[in-house]
Give the backbone structure.
Amino acid sequence: MAAIAGGKISTYPASTVYATLRSLAVSGQLPVGQKFRITDFRTRHTIPLTSEINTGMQEVLVVTAMSPHALEPIAFSESYPQDVIEYELVNTLPDPAFDKGRILYRRDTRKDIWSFEDWRAIKYRRGRNSTTGKFTEISDFSKGYVDLYPFNNSPDPSFTNRVHVGRANGSQLSNIVVGTGKSAVSDDISIGSGCNSITIGDNSDIIDIGNVNGNITIGDNSHHIRIGVCSDYTVVGDRCSYINIGMQSCSIVVKNEVFNSSVGDNVRPMVLGNGVPVGEIYVGNGIYIDPPPVITAPGSLEKYRSTLSAVVDVTGQEHLFLDSLKHAGIIRLTSKKGAQSISRIFKTPDPNETDFPIELRPSPGLVVTVVGTSFEALSGDGQILVQGNLVLDGDKGDSVILKRKSVGQHAIFTEISRFIY
């Protein structure tokens, strides 16, 4: 510590051990602006749901004094200079195993991997599932277990890019594992804040899990999967794709090789598929399924496109309400009258909803006039940005594709394309 003797700030980082730096902070003797190399730092923690301690590799952290008693939150690693780190000198979690402070956030700027924990050192335990033989159990370790790093079981994961994990739920570690060390690729995975106890298998990509989920397992080779808010106890089988699970759902199992699927809101214990390829599944809102059947329906749901269809009776209505049909991309309009006008469309924006256009198709025998609003006249939610009125004849197969957009404080619909015959 001779480099800062007498309180002078050294041009170079002063090498020290954690105990000495902690003592300087407690006594208010940190020279403001001085950089320090913590030469004995390593992450040490209790593995969740066990009493066992995991100790990571030692690395030198470079920190800066912000005041005589405190450090700036941003730190850097000499072992991983591409990382941006948030570090606290005194651990605030209830786990006393963090005895040299704690890394609160770590981002690899080259691979765009980040999480609110030291994912290069933390390990989580996964028990062996007696049915699948895979290590996906988060609390039953009686049939064997492995301790895994969060990302592809490595402190420097290969074939893993653009993986983001939000803040854990409460004062605990996230217990989230992406990949098991055998992945060819695990990319474009986003897990929202408040999530816990999630396992994502190898070779998964473009997976988006909403906030406050837990106990979710996604099998190998799955991709383009989106799971909504408060879904938990969810298992998605191997080689599944294009799956959207709605909000507040729980105890859902999607079997192997099911694809192009959507599960609606408030759906409770459910099993889709029977272990053989079953495709194009849509389960609507508020449905409770017991015993679990095999359900199929025409259409598919992707991140920016849906061919799932729904029939809406608009008899005597000028407004079209689609909140209960958030996964449907084709709206087939019916009416007891031969002519009908639609002036507004209401579909409440949902941050965890798949974003895609909707196509309005009148049924045969029905003529629908879409009442347009000019940009200058926009004044409220649901208005349709079309110059003049658009007449759709169901007998001719006319249709229009609209996309919801925000204009100021209003959610309106704009025309993407039209098919008039």
